[in-house]
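Can anyone check this?
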Amino acid sequence: MVEEFNLIISTRRGEESEASSEAWYLLREIGDPSPDVRRTSVAGLLVAKTSLNPFEAISKLRELLRERPWDFRHMMRVIPIEVVVRADVGEIASAVEELAQKIALSEKFRVTVEKRHTSLSSMEVIKAAADKVDRKVDLKNPDKVVLIEIIGSVAGVSVISPSDILAVQKEKAAE
């Protein structure tokens, strides 16, 4: 069975416990009565399973960040994940094919692969994923990003707008 999660949370190395507690607390604050936040095999990386839609969770966390920036001390980035599959090129490509309809015919896209603790080839993953999306590519300024986050034996896949990632420090600085 593939591990279930719908958020990836990054923190500074050594702050995983604090970030985990912070994420659990903040997810409860925005309406999830029992979020599940876990460490991964990668230093500075957590995964969370929230009962909320991951995009809605990030939107609510962003509102909370504006109201109470002091509550965000350890979480650095929060990334929405739509599908979790085994870290296998074929399974990743199938997940991308399922999500590709989220990219309108008029929109341009890019594939971004973040990989940790895997020997999969980034170029092989990018090519397999891009082959499943029949849209124009724009590497510099895409409307949508096919995001593939590989953590060891699992891969989280999402089709997102660049603004769907909550970058805590960047957003604090913009206030």
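Reply from J.R.: I decoded it. Residues 83-160 form a domain with the VC0802-like fold (CATH 3.30.2130.30).
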